[in-house]
Write a structure and sequence with these properties.
By secondary structure, this protein is mostly helical. It is built from one helix and no strands. The termini are far apart.
Amino acid sequence: MKNPALSLWMSTANRAAGWWMGHATNAVRRQQRAALAEMTRAATGAKPKRKPRPGPKRRTR
């Protein structure tokens, strides 16, 4: 027969490990994406595009 306390602890530990693994995987992917973007930007010599700044708001009467 299974020990319910041990079973609960194991399921909680596995869930926590899965959560941390997901975050670690996303962090690695984010780093790889940034590195790839940096390499392609350096290869082409292109500057990153900037969005135009919004001008002053005009009052309407």
